[in-house]
């Protein structure tokens, strides 16, 4: 069988890099993306192509250059993403749009530009990296949750619309993993006169502690490899600690107010 060509958006760091390293070890032909190759002069794990998912021109040229090199894209992993925190009432609207541009519109545009090639190949797999946070409106992370939840939902639509062309789609929702996500995250400033000041400040501290003590992103790479090797992937997968994965089951079975109390006590990424 021919070596599968895999494109990972945001392959330069964290989860995307870990996925790329694992898939390369498994024998896949891996390409990652970054907004700026010059930022990673020593990166040698797999080739990096330039793409900013907020800029459709860069998406088109990146995919065109990969197709010129390999003539096919077997697996697309929409991994590039950013965090955003803030009280809903105080999060600047332009930052809401920026987060959605990266976490939602970006993956849509990447998919729309890869689908014609996959249709021509009569096969292809797209895995959208969402988040366990996308299944629940977390306090002070509502915009992040919403952007990831929106990606979960449209994946279901794409999945049914493209099945007839031999294309498969799924989502993988990670819990907390130790990456650089905190450094790229937009934090709404904690205003001294804000009614949310104390609660927001302590949530911010716990979010950072959760990421720092999160799992090894290599685990996400292993999960991705299993999904690629699955003949007929499920619509959705999760990866993370038992309690983070189990939180989704709890949401389904607990009365709404109980579940809310749990989230108020502690929330996952
Ligand atoms: N870490 C966690 O606990 C966790 C949990 C759930 C979900 N996730 C999701 O996992 C994915 C990877 O995050 P991570 O934790 O690995 O964070 P990370 O270490 O900050 O990596 C983010 C990656 O996204 C790329 N990126 C950011 N903005 C981009 C843009 N506009 N266009 C193209 N690429 C862009 C970055 O590339 P350059 O900066 O090189 O351009 C980088 O490779 C994200 O979708 C995140 O939401 C993470």
From TrEMBL:
<comment type="similarity">
    <text>Belongs to the short-chain dehydrogenases/reductases (SDR) family.</text>
</comment>
<dbReference type="InterPro" id="IPR036291">
    <property type="entry name" value="NAD(P)-bd_dom_sf"/>
</dbReference>
<dbReference type="InterPro" id="IPR051911">
    <property type="entry name" value="SDR_oxidoreductase"/>
</dbReference>
<dbReference type="Pfam" id="PF00106">
    <property type="entry name" value="adh_short"/>
</dbReference>
<dbReference type="InterPro" id="IPR002347">
    <property type="entry name" value="SDR_fam"/>
</dbReference>
<dbReference type="InterPro" id="IPR020904">
    <property type="entry name" value="Sc_DH/Rdtase_CS"/>
</dbReference>
<protein>
    <submittedName>
        <fullName>Short-subunit dehydrogenase</fullName>
    </submittedName>
</protein>
<dbReference type="GO" id="GO:0016491">
    <property type="term" value="F:oxidoreductase activity"/>
</dbReference>
<keyword id="KW-0560">Oxidoreductase</keyword>
């Amino acid at each position: 069988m021919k070596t599968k060509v895999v494109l990972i958006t945001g392959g330069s760091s964290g989860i995307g890099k870990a996925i790329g390293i694992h898939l390369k070890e498994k024998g896949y032909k891996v390409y990652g993306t970054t907004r700026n190759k010059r930022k990673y002069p020593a990166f040698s794990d797999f080739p990096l192509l330039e793409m900013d998912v907020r800029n459709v021109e860069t998406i088109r040229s990146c995919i065109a250059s990969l197709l010129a090199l390999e003539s096919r894209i077997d697996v697309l992993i929409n991994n590039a993403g950013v965090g955003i925190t803030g009280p809903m009432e105080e999060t600047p609207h332009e930052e809401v749009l920026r987060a959605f541009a990266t976490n939602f519109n970006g993956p849509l545009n990447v998919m729309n530009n890869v689908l014609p090639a996959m249709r021509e190949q009569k096969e292809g797999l797209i895995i959208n990296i969402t988040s366990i946070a996308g299944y629940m409106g977390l306090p002070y992370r509502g915009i992040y949750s919403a952007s990831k939840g929106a990606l979960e939902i449209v994946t279901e639509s794409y999945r049914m619309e493209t099945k007839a062309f031999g294309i498969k789609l799924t989502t993988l929702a990670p819990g907390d993993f130790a990456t650089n996500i905190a450094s790229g995250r937009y934090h709404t400033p904690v205003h001294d006169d804000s009614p949310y000041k104390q609660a927001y400040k302590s949530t911010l501290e716990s979010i950072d502690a959760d990421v720092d003590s999160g799992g090894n992103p290599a685990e996400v790479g292993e999960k991705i490899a299993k999904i690629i090797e699955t003949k007929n992937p499920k619509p959705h997968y999760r990866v993370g600690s038992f309690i983070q994965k189990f939180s989704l089951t709890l949401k389904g079975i607990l009365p709404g107010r109980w579940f809310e109390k749990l989230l108020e006590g502690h929330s996952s990424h």
